[in-house]
Design goal:
Blueprint (H helix, E strand, L loop, with lengths): L10 H5 L1 E3 L6 H12 L18 H13 L3 H9 L3 E6 L2 E8 L7 E6 L13 H5 L12 E6 L17 H14 L5 E5 L2 H12 L4 E6 L7 H8 L10 H17 L1 H8 L6 H4 L1 H10 L9 H6 L10 H14 L2 H10 L14 E5 L9 H7 L4 E6 L7 H4 L1 H12 L4
Parallel strand pairs: 4-5, 4-6, 6-7, 7-8, 8-9
Antiparallel strand pairs: 1-2, 2-3, 3-5
């Protein structure tokens, strides 16, 4: 079956899936450049580091490239070279990329992005995962890929009523895989993708064989209780567990406020819809999940030689948010969410975990094994990569997917 064909259980299901073409009018790109040129800048920060937010010199340099040399049409062409579709699920149009491997025995895999990411995060893993024989793998490692845009993000529709939190999205993803005719499949996610994927695992629909997370929920209940009241690390933690506790405590104390604002007042973020610079700065400041200098900022400064993330990648992602006007609609997912991010979940199906060194916290093996004693099928700590693991280290990430799900084929 070719990549552009749409397998489904019934003709009716096939008819509910419509091809999608990415195409923005030139007037929107002209307006973007006009707004960039008209930016009213504040004075520079009063510190010599990033402790007050994205430094003025860094965002001005990025805005200059965005206005003068960046070409959105290149990204648009790369997207349109892939099979894009829209399907109405639970009353909402959901966009997804669907790439069928040429290896018919490939394992179907649904991959979910997070915030401030998008399907742009996953573009570099499509070839290695769907065509592994051309990228150091074997035919037995192949995946059929389904890469959806979260509701209110990218090319998916924006919910007009409440209720589209991770549980509803998880059920929509299950329905999507059913529409595509996949009777057995696996799921992967980081950031919000982790929340959605782990919720799918909790609900354990019949076709879901297992899940993988690169931002795993492993924190034991007793430890989570201490974190909630900002207590010192509990006694008895190992060195690795104590380091993870301190990472989470630091995030809660210093860097979670962007999430709290979106979780309580997302509609107030009008600047994300009106100013491309405000949108870019807000996304950059929290793009590594910590609110402090991370891999994204290091890439912009030319200080991340081991990362495959590029300046153009970052502008592709921000421009996608700008052109689709999804800064505010994406923020509402924080308002919708009712569950903690990092607490261990009630998951009984197979789960795989990859720990990248620049993630929010490095989930200790001991916590992973305690959380999932009978169903942890893969655990690995990587030597490089961060919050946008598939984007930053696509080859490492692809190998993790092969290793994680090999036992479920």
């Amino acid at each position: 079956m070719s990549a552009t064909e749409v397998p489904s259980n019934t003709a009716g299901a096939r008819n509910s899936i419509r091809p999608y073409q990415v195409e923005f009018p030139e007037a929107q790109l002209t307006d973007l450049k006009r707004r960039l040129a008209a930016t009213r800048w504040p004075e520079r920060e009063t510190v010599a580091d990033d402790s007050q937010g994205v430094p003025l010199d860094l965002i001005q340099d990025l805005a200059r490239d965005w206005e003068e040399s960046y070409d959105w049409r290149g990204c648009e062409a790369r997207l349109n070279a892939l099979p894009n579709f829209i399907s109405e699920i639970d009353g909402l149009d959901i966009h997804f990329i669907h790439v069928r491997s040429r290896h018919e025995d490939a394992l179907p895999l649904i991959v979910t992005h997070g915030w401030p990411g998008s399907i742009i995060e996953q573009l570099k893993i499509i070839e290695p995962l769907s065509d592994p024989t051309a990228h150091g793998g074997s035919a037995s490692d192949a995946f059929h890929l389904v890469i959806p845009s979260l509701p209110g993000h990218g090319f998916s529709a924006k919910p007009t009523a409440t209720g589209w939190g991770p549980p509803r999205i998880a059920r929509a993803w299950t329905k999507l895989m059913e529409l595509l005719g996949y009777e057995r499949y696996v799921a992967q996610g980081g950031d919000w993708g982790a929340a959605v994927t782990q919720t799918m695992a909790e609900e354990a629909p019949p076709g879901l064989l297992g899940v993988h997370s690169n931002m795993a929920a492993t924190v034991p209940a007793a430890v989570a209780g201490e974190l909630a009241v900002a207590a010192p690390p509990p006694a008895g933690l190992s060195e690795e567990e104590r380091a993870a506790y301190e990472q989470l405590a630091d995030f809660n104390a210093k860097h979670v406020y962007y999430a709290l604002f979106m979780a309580t007042r997302p509609q107030t973020l009008y600047g994300l819809a009106d100013s491309p610079v405000d949108l870019a700065a807000f996304m950059l400041d929290h793009g590594d999940g910590t609110g402090q200098p991370g891999n994204v900022e290091r890439v912009l400064r030319g200080e991340a030689p081991d990362s495959e993330l590029t300046r153009e990648d970052i502008l592709d992602n921000v421009t996608l948010y700008w052109l689709t006007n999804t800064g505010v609609s994406a923020a509402r997912l924080y308002w919708e969410n009712k569950a903690p991010f990092f607490d261990a979940r009630d998951i009984t199906i197979p789960i795989a975990i990859s720990v990248f060194p620049d993630e929010l916290y490095q989930a200790p093996r001991s916590w992973a094994e305690q959380a999932y004693p009978d169903n942890l099928i893969h655990y690995n700590q990587l030597d490089r990569g961060g919050h946008f693991a598939a984007w930053e280290q696509p080859q490492l990430f692809s190998q993790e997917m092969r290793d994680a799900f090999r036992s479920l084929r």
